[in-house]
């Protein structure tokens, strides 16, 4: 069984052609994509899909931790990536909105230590660092 089907069924979400294709698009993309770009890629294969369907599906996928959302305030939009692809943190430029994935996790040991110190069971964490990329400095 396809892993995307497994993720959807595990979370009691309907397996639809649009959701399956959205997950394929996110899995085969390096980096983050805004909903509009996902919609344009999806529209090639599923011409009857609407942008509102894409937004609703992304919201459901995010609510079930299948997809992760990163708010890019400079662009006033949310970008998405497959949550199961890799554990990721980001550098986000406050000027142009460029996003750089940090492949190393600078928080893992600290999160474990803080969880232990406060008797908290840490199940996940997110870290986005904001500043200015070399082109915008």
Task: Output the CATH class name of the largest domain.
Answer: Mainly Alpha
Order of helices and strands: HHEHHEEEEHE
Please, what is the CATH homologous superfamily of the largest domain? Winged helix-like DNA-binding domain superfamily/Winged helix DNA-binding domain
Helix- and strand-based class? alpha+beta
Q: Please, how many helices?
A: 5
From the coordinates shown, what is the CATH architecture of the largest domain? Orthogonal Bundle
CA(first)-CA(last) distance: 48 Å
In percent terms, what proportion of residues is strand?
Answer: 15-25%
User: Helical content, roughly?
Assistant: 25-40%
Let me know the average pLDDT. Answer: 86
Poorly predicted segments: none
The profile of the biggest β sheet is: 3 strands, antiparallel
What name is given to the CATH topology of the largest domain? Arc Repressor Mutant, subunit A
Number of strands: 6
Strand order of the largest sheet: 1-3-2
Q: How big is the Rg?
A: 17 Å
What does the model show?
The structure is a single chain. The chain is α+β, with helices and mostly antiparallel strands. The protein has two domains: 1-85, Winged helix-like DNA-binding domain superfamily/Winged helix DNA-binding domain (Arc Repressor Mutant, subunit A, Orthogonal Bundle), CATH 1.10.10.10; 86-137, 2-Layer Sandwich (Dna Ligase, domain 1), CATH 3.30.1490.190. Helix 2 (17-27) packs across helix 3 (35-45). The N and C termini lie far apart (48 Å). A three-stranded antiparallel β-sheet has the order 1-3-2. The mean pLDDT is 86. It is flat, with a radius of gyration of 17 Å. A hairpin with a 5-residue loop joins strand 4 (89-93) and strand 5 (99-102). It has five helices and six strands. Helices cover 39% and strands 20% of the residues.
């Amino acid at each position: 069984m396809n892993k995307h089907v497994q993720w959807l069924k595990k979370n009691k979400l309907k397996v639809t052609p649009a959701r399956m294709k959205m997950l394929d698009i996110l899995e085969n993309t390096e980096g983050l994509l805004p909903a509009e770009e996902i919609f344009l890629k999806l529209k090639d294969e599923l011409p009857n899909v609407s942008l509102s369907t894409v937004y609703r599906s992304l919201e459901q996928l995010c609510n079930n931790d299948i997809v992760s959302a990163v708010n890019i305030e400079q662009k006033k939009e949310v970008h998405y990536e497959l949550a199961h692809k890799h554990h990721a943190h980001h550098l986000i430029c406050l000027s142009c909105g460029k996003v750089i994935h940090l492949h190393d996790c600078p928080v893992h040991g600290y999160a474990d230590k803080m969880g232990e110190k406060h008797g908290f069971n840490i199940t996940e964490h997110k870290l986005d660092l904001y500043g200015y990329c070399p082109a915008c400095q």
